[in-house]
Amino acid sequence: MNKEVAIELRRITKTFGNVVANKDVDLTVYKGEILAILGENGSGKTTLMNMIAGIYYPDEGHIIVGGEEAVIKSPKDAFRYKIGMIHQHFKLVDVFTASENVILGVNDGSKYRLSDVNERVAAIAEKYGFIINPKKKIHEMSVSEKQTVEIIKVLYRGADILILDEPTAVLTPQETEKLFAVLRKMKEDGKSIIIITHKMHEVLSISDRVAVLRKGEHIATVNTAETSEAELTEMMVGKKISLNINRPEPKNPCERLVVSNISSVDSEGVQVLDDISFTAFSGEILGIAGIAGSGQRELLESIAGLYPITSGEIMYNNPASGEMENLRNKTPMQIRDLGVRLSFVPEDRLGMGLVGNMGITDNIMLRSYTKGKSMFLDRIPPKNLAKEIIKSLEVSTPDEETPVRRLSGGNVQKVLVGREIASAPSVLMAAYPVRGLDINSSYMIYNLLTQQKENGVAVIFVGEDLDVLTELCDRILVINGGKITGILDGRTAKKEEIGLLMTKHVSSAEAKEDESNAEK
Amino acid sequence: MLTFLTQAVRIGMTLLFGSTGETISEKSGHLNLGVPGVMCIGAAFGCVSETIYISKVGSLTDGRSFFVYLFAVLIPILTAIIGGALAGLLYSVLTVSLRSNQNVTGLVLTTFGVGLSKLMITSVQKKIISASVTGVNISFTQASKYFTASLPFANKLGVVGKLLFSYGIMIYLAIAVALIAAYVLSKTRLGLHLRAVGENPATADAAGINVSAYRYGATCVGCAVSALGGLTFIMDNLNGNWEYIIDAMGWLSVALVIFTVWKPNIAIPGSIIFGGLYIAASYINGISLATKEIFKILPYFVTVVVLIITSIRNKRENQPPAGLGMNYFREER
Amino acid sequence: MQKNENSRHEPLFHIAKRSSVSMKKAIAVRAIAIVAALLVAGVFIFAITKRNPIEIYKQMFLGVFGSAHRITKALKSLAILLCISLAVTPAFKMKFWNCGAEGQALIGGLACAACMFYIGGSVPKWLLVIIMTVTSILAGAIWAVIPALFKAKWNTNETLFTLMMNYVATSLVAFFIKCWAKDGSGILRPMTEYGLPQLANTDYLLAVIVVTLLTVATYIYMKYSKHGYEITVVGESENTARYIGINVKKVIIRTMLLSGAICGLCGLLLVGGIDKTISTETIGGQGFTAIMVSWLGKFNPIFMILTSFLIVFLQVGTKQVSTSFRIDTSLADITTAIILFFIIGCEFFINYKIMFRKKEKEVK
Hints:
- The structure holds three protein chains of three kinds.
- Chain A has helices spanning 45-52, 75-80, 98-103, 114-128, 143-156, 173-188, 200-206, 229-237, 296-303, 332-337, 349-353, 360-365, 380-392, 409-422, 439-454, 466-472, 495-503, 508-519, and strands at residues 5-16, 19-30, 34-38, 60-65, 68-69, 83-86, 161-165, 192-197, 209-214, 217-223, 255-265, 271-281, 284-289, 311-317, 324-326, 342-345, 427-431, 458-462, 475-480, 483-489.
- By secondary structure, chain A is of the alpha/beta class.
- Chain A has three domains: 5-237, Rossmann fold, CATH 3.40.50; 245-341 and 424-520, 3-Layer(aba) Sandwich (Rossmann fold); 352-423, no CATH class.
- In chain A, the strands form four sheets. A six-stranded mixed sheet of chain A has the order 6-7-8-3-9-10, sandwiched between helices. Chain A has a six-stranded mixed sheet with strand order 16-17-18-13-19-20, with helices on both faces. A four-stranded antiparallel sheet of chain A has the order 2-1-4-5, covered by helices on one side.
- Chain B is mainly alpha-helical.
- Chain B has a single domain (2-318), classed as ABC transporter involved in vitamin B12 uptake, BtuC.
- Chain B is built from 13 helices and no strands.
- The model of chain B has no long low-confidence stretch (mean pLDDT 86).
- By secondary structure, chain C is an all-alpha fold.
- Chain C has a domain at 85-304.
- Helices cover 74% and strands 3% of the residues of chain C.
- Chain C has a two-stranded antiparallel sheet.
- Chains in contact: A-B, A-C, B-C.
């Protein structure tokens, strides 16, 4: 193999406030190789790559490109060093054609002629085996076509080092194969490719070497040919750390929520939920593990009546009447009117769960304001409840009328969780409830969830930290690409096992088998 | 019928200036509701500079040097452009640098422009009266002759000649500006970047385009173009007689932008249609004064219909620029 | 070399959104803006009149408070402006840009005038008043709900739609005036024998009382009613509204019905109560001024009393200045606009803070 160094990182450190995103990271990328960067959510992969691409500037350390120290302060600088990054969220103008997007911002002094650009785009596409119509508008394109445009955009600017941030997250297996074929051609062309991914089989099939990051640190870089899935998983998830979260045995579990065969398609036509079936029992915490964007949000939202499903049933066993209610495609109001006591702590706290500019009282009132026949609001009960939540959850705030936008992340979350618990739910769904919270607040949230479980609530917990999932949850459901890849017992599940299920590529038949095994 | 068509074209070109200017600034993401005010400012600046010019060089009687007449046309055009650009600058300072609400800023600019033009014209009229005492006859109608002066052979070419060549300079200028705007917007790098700024400022920013600079530039240029519409209305359409209805022309121009789905080249026939609708009532015999008022609804009515149809069809190309009305702040997510 | 070039590109200062600002500071910034604006306006008027600026401010003050007659006139303007401002407030709070208050009020006035013209005299007076009230309010509401329906169903741009509706309304009014004014003058003579009852022999008192009640009612509606709460939630975050289960479309339609109804009421007060006639200039651009009043008053009806007073004071005051110094009355519009520019601009200093970049640390 050609061992000429393309880019080298030396002791790169980056902190955001008190959070260390990357610490003393060393990394070398050679010309003509594909390097995979593997790591869990929050392990600092994207931050590291953003520093190469000029989005962030490292606090400490050096970046060496082609043997010389490089100062990369903006994406423009990065292009000067022939580095281009394809972000997860496409930055494209919808009403423009592929070519128009490609030359956007390029001012190389040449005469502006779209026909020339079309030709050059077509030439690049042909060289690497892309299939693209340069005159097609972005809004008429599929996700994979959009991604192609992003890649061509980078190539058009003459990049020799390409960074792809989770490029396959939005692609079908066939599209992924096509992309990989293109990447291999680029590699043959002498380009260096860095690919961030979670999917183990992809790492093994595409990369020459793998760099594993964990909690902001570089663990190791190994040759793909000399490693195994198990070894990589272990490096990725690390050793088990005990958190001492209290986990009582579930008492008299009974079926509370039976989800059967639900599927859903998003606005771009991507299958986000694929034949999902599970049961949530009262008095237990059901954890949901998976790489971010595997369908967790859509799953919870479709149960809450916020996301349309194309097929399947969501049956709710009403503890008051003992009757089964079907929640499929009902609005949140209709669900509530059925007497279903469903609480939901969404991922986007200030964008969905709360209104940032309103005070705590008014936010608490969101769930209860419709009560009573009067056309006026009764602010006294929510105000009292707000005071109670502030006191019992130790929310640090000047008073209960302070806009929640001004509170810190942990306090915002306490208000939200406090409100959702206060309505005495029989099902409580929480998506990433401890994201961005400090240790103390996190433990408070775990304790609250456990308390709810002891009260007989069916708790559904979407988490990202495997240590937490394995200590908090009674059962863990693993999803991958909108499919369930396994349901494990929380008390016996190993982190590596979950990690494998999260990243492995499974056919739906296999998944069903796993599922039925777990149900037993 | 022929006079109807030529009149429709003349009124239409006032609207074309207004809408071309507004299209340029809307393409950058600025919904500038100050256009009616800007058009008033353009007209007022033009007329005031004309007054000053004539009081310096003396009455525009026949038989003077060609350049005296030439400057009598060029100077108002230039000052109208300057006046419009200044108004655009004011709007941009508030909306881009100070991130004020675009709707509110635009409406205040309209109030300001309408007021300022009235004040300028009333004070100019005083000046005209005092000048006439000293024997200098300042007359906008006199000056307007040079704005409307057509090519000498126009009348010899019969109907076609009258239809195509009988107009004053502003009419041809309007069409030229609209064609240039259409060309720049669709066929140049500048236009591509400008449209990107209006559609998706975050993407444009990421591509290294200076969003603020583009918005400033587009709004100033757009306002300068719109301002010429005000001047055209007074000096061409009304033959130099002041009427305080320029702002109505401004709102029609805003309507025209929607009617022509943000395309200056479509605006050329579109503006003539609007001009025709605007004056249609006066050319139809045997209808009452009251019915004529109903005719004035037509341009607005068809605009509403176009607005509804485009939103129902939801075809991406015919929608307002996606970033229209929203100020861009990089750190806001 | 490379580094120098880069550091030169570093911007001098950095703008960040403020998370909060103290009430004191917010008031101080606005006060400074108003004072600065008054000074600039004073200089502007001085430049035109060449009079002593103190004299100008005195004339402004006298124009508003100079006599009982002037005070009542100012009160009348205040009542009408505040009324339209109250009308647009619920819509704005919902982030629905209702720029059509002008047309909605005009249509309300037209409905009122139509009642007076066609059935005035043929029904008892009390019945006429009821019919007038109902039709005006209904007409305004219908005019407003048309764009709302399209917004809710197809997300049609409401700013442009409502703007266009204004001119349709103006032309409709012009049409009916031409139909009704039999002398061909194009001016409809006041129908003094009909119209709303007069209180204490003045035409303005009724309007003042109605608007006072309306201000309180709107304040309560926005702050204490479930509807008002829903409007706030929809305006702040449509996502949260959906999450909670609010029917966003229903709220948009309901709120615009209300907004239009209040505009219709305003038309009734103007046409039926004060003018007893209608012209295309009856509302006189106050539908647009109201947008600024509401926005400057932070959509709070109590603050809006202050902002509408500020604008009325400026308009009435500068009108006095212009008449006493023989300048065109458009001076009022200009000074008002100048002051509004300042106030709009000063919001930036309340919502954002400017941080000058600290001297850059050596990267090493």
